[in-house]
Each structure stands twice: as C-alpha cells, then as structure tokens.
Amino acid sequence: MSTYIEPVDGQPRCNWCGGAAEFLPYHDNEWGFPVKDDIRLFEKLCLESFQSGLSWRTILNKRENFRMAFKGFDFHQVARFDEQDIQRLLQDAGIVRHRGKIEAVINNAQRAIELIEREGSLAGYFWRFEEAEPDTEQLQMRATSSQSEALSKALKKQGWKFVGPTTVYAFMQAMGLVNDHAPDCVTRQKVTQARKTFNKP
C-alpha cells in the first residue's frame, strides 16, 4: 500500500491525507482514535451522511458551520427542529443544503433518543459492532465490512436514514471502531495503543 510522506517531518502517513492541507491535522489527531462521547458519535454519523456523493474535504471545511447550524449536534435539541428550522437550514450557505439530508439528521436525532432510552447510550450500542484488526491487504481497500453492513441494517430497521453500509464504515473508520491506518503510517501505532487502553462503554 502506498503512503504519503509528509514533507514537514518526513514521516509516512495514509496516502489520502496528502490530498489537502486540512487533512493532516484531522488524520493525525482524530481519524481512527476511539470515541465514546455520544454527541461526537452522532455528529460524525450525520457528517458522513452529508458527505454522501461529495468529498470529505467539502464537509470538513464546513464542519464548524454544521456545528453552529445543528446546535453542536446536541440530538436533544435537533430532535425538536421543525419546518421553520428546515427552511432556515436550506438558506444556510455555510452547510450542504440538501433537504433530504437535513430531514435525515432531524429524524436520526429522534431515533438516537429512542436508542439511548433502550440501550443506555449511543456509544454502548455502536461499540458492539467494533471491527477486529483488518488483514493488511484489506486496509483502506474496502468501502464496507460485515460489521458496517450489520450496523447499517440494524439502524435502518430502527428508522435511521442515510446510514448505508458505506456511510457507516466511514463513520467506523473515523471513530476508532476499526483501525484502518496504513501499515507503515506513523499514526497507526498511536491508534492501536489508544484502542488497547480505551475503556469501552
């Protein structure tokens, strides 16, 4: 697997993070590190749904705008959004103005509250679908997995929207449910250690 050599420190990293300057801090400090905060998990799943059909660069550059528009992705607040909020968001040039995706976030906030009432937390539920370490030849070579397909199917059954297996796998990669960093990526070992010491919910 090819890797990108960062000129600043000469260290190899996942090839994709050489695509734009803003990818590097995201790759080094966020992508793949395990997360159990429900708000962060909900936010990321929503942002991945907005990315569908677009580039992650577009979403990453608009992330702060998304956070402002969706009340920090506090699903208790988002669940109360109404048609007036939808119209406000459709006029917000700082985000992706796609009515279906906006409505999906509101719907999914309501579903998130229901899931927490049943399961205790989003984190406790999502981490049941944690991936084993992929084989080296599978790293960043697949868009879905059996676990992302299972989680996608389970969420859809509960009424979540825009949570296909590809979207869910990207969410799992980012939130540390699978370590998909390239074998010689300088961040891979950091993520491996973080996952080992992670106190699963």
UniProtKB/TrEMBL annotation:
Which named protein is this? Hydrolase
Q: Supply the alphabetized keyword list.
A: Hydrolase, Metal-binding, Zinc
Could you tell me which InterPro entries the record lists for this protein? Adenine_glyco, DNA-3mA_glycosylase, DNA_glycosylase
Domain of life, per lineage? Bacteria
Molecular function (Gene Ontology), one example: DNA-3-methyladenine glycosylase activity
User: Which Gene3D superfamilies does the UniProt record give?
Assistant: Hypothetical protein, domain 2 (1.10.340.30)
Residues that hold Zn(2+) according to the record:
14, 27, 181, 185
Q: Name one Pfam family in it.
A: Adenine_glyco
Per the UniProt entry, what species is this protein from, by scientific name? Answer: Bowmanella pacifica
Please name the GO terms of the biological process aspect recorded for this protein, alphabetically.
Answer: base-excision repair
